[in-house]
Amino acid sequence: MDTEKYIVQGFKASAVVSGLKKGNALDVALIVSEREAAVAGVFTTNKVRAAPVLLSERHVKNGKARAIIANAGNANACTGSPGLNDARTTADLVGKALGMSAEEVLVASTGVIGQRLNMGVVARAIPLLTEALSPDALPLVAKAIMTTDSFPKISSFEGQAGGRPYRIMGIAKGAGMIMPHMATMLCFILSDISIDPDTLKRALLSSVRSTFNRITVDGDTSTNDMVLVMANGLAGNGVLSAGEYDIFAGGLRDVMGDLARMIVRDGEGATKLVSVDIKNAFSSSDALKAARTVANSSLVKTAFYGQDPNWGRIVAALGRAEIEMIEERVDIWIDEVQIVAGGLGRGAEAEKRAAEIMTRKEFTLTIDLHQGAYHDRMVTCDLTHEYVTINADYRT
Amino acid sequence: MDTEKYIVQGFKASAVVSGLKKGNALDVALIVSEREAAVAGVFTTNKVRAAPVLLSERHVKNGKARAIIANAGNANACTGSPGLNDARTTADLVGKALGMSAEEVLVASTGVIGQRLNMGVVARAIPLLTEALSPDALPLVAKAIMTTDSFPKISSFEGQAGGRPYRIMGIAKGAGMIMPHMATMLCFILSDISIDPDTLKRALLSSVRSTFNRITVDGDTSTNDMVLVMANGLAGNGVLSAGEYDIFAGGLRDVMGDLARMIVRDGEGATKLVSVDIKNAFSSSDALKAARTVANSSLVKTAFYGQDPNWGRIVAALGRAEIEMIEERVDIWIDEVQIVAGGLGRGAEAEKRAAEIMTRKEFTLTIDLHQGAYHDRMVTCDLTHEYVTINADYRT
Question: Among B366, B204, B203, which Cα is nearest to B294's?
């Protein structure tokens, strides 16, 4: 891995083996900005919210932060007020170790729900983390936050503002419980751009909408998701012009889109990445509902796995999506091969060609409803034996 | 099988091997009432509705019918107006063969979506069916309508009205695409009770609500579902008293509840039947939403399969159900073992006992939200490797 590429000036990171995760793997990580950074966050919409979600949401409110501590192996969710105290203590310990206030420290956790965090383990890990801080260790953070992920997820972008180059670096973890809005997903994005917190938040929200909120692995949403963006201003650019903002927001969207697709590609047991594109829905909410219903249908997802262009299941999913639709208008394609025209199958030859495309690791399912002018897209994966194996055995 | 038990006076049935289904199996069936019967039906809520659904819905409108022809192997869904013509032709042919009008014939199909029915095969089958009609062949109909079902589903009830005994006999098929409202599910119920069509419809609707509309296998709903009830009056009872109506409606509900549970027990790949009982929700719609969301969660269903009392997934599913809930109030039981009290886990010992219960083929997951006074229940199954195998390979 080209580690230089993953350095963002003014940020250091570290990861250690604490024992929270089984099997002697990196499981606690720290990210620190050498100076106060603008920060923005997006948090799970699940009504059951893990302790670190509650705490970090409070800590990003003033738009400023300096550090993120993240652990895998234990989600610190459904742990009540003792769990919230544990998250607070973690922030306190990190703040003391780094000489900053606890309010400048964000906390993120992922892993098993409903068990108290072992605070002895966390307390022992913190001095090791602060000692190991280094500018080129961000890829290790990507490893430390993995749970059932099979590969670390990193993406970066380089831009210019006011003649000064800047970088956006994102890391994420995903795998299960992936579904809008937010999932068992952690995403940390670091940049050296100079930007005010309100503008940073605006860029984050618009990017989340078209990236993390448009992916699904299994339709479940988690208690622990968060996306945090920190920008420390070391690039030294001035106030962003409208054009420069657009480039930054575009870069952020690219990084987050990249990470979101990696999360689906690495969905639990997934062997295929499928983009479900809805065209010409009656309304924007219809477009999203149609995309979501198809992308989450177990029957459609097993058909992807079976490489079977079983469009009857797709049409049946649309039929229960509670959208405006007229069966006789529906057209369906697998990549460039049209398998349904006006609600009717186009025959064995078209299906044979579509089945060949479905042997690929990535393809697009396009559905034209011919009801209006609204489009949307969900990125999903197939439902496989391996998904069942992973989730039947997760805790045992 | 005790065939006498499955005779309802005045009804005859038959089933033959036509070739619509692979492997030389019974696949077309006929049920005939010797005299005009009161009829009521409930049909899929999917916006994509198969040809036989469109036709039979029209034919039950006047509350009278005499025959049902059903086939497996081909759903005659997404086949456009040619498909509707095929269904109409089928009813015509049966009507001619039996000397009744086509409007007295109901048509039902289940199987692959999107392929035209082979009408030559159907036409050849009809004379064989009429020739084979016999009072004790209803169990054969249950076999003929099976698709991925592993056993035929039959249930019966005996009651008395006006001093006259009557019988209710129900047969059904299910397996995949099971989810309220209605599924790839066919259910035919026959009775010799004397009842007017409006009263019959009332009894049917109230029974569907608490039986077929409270089961789920995979959250998908089908294009072809229907429940038909025919009552030919041969029992000779008079107008039902309020008490007699209640007994009849209760019997109907028992038969349909029985069949609904059989459908879940035989859900594609299912190894466990789980009743998800919601207690004390804020509203009736919240109770149903909570039950549905938990009963359809892939993560919860794989945990059932893994015999893992992973209550974090249950709480996380509740959290995204869009209901009124306060995490700190939630109590959860597996049968009589409480695993969550006030939103917190009750520890390893309770989970161990719950895990033992989950090795059983049937158990109840009870969730008390402590938000109000509304209860509801969904019956679901686990999500297994076999489900994926069946649905990845269905057409190949």
Answer: B366
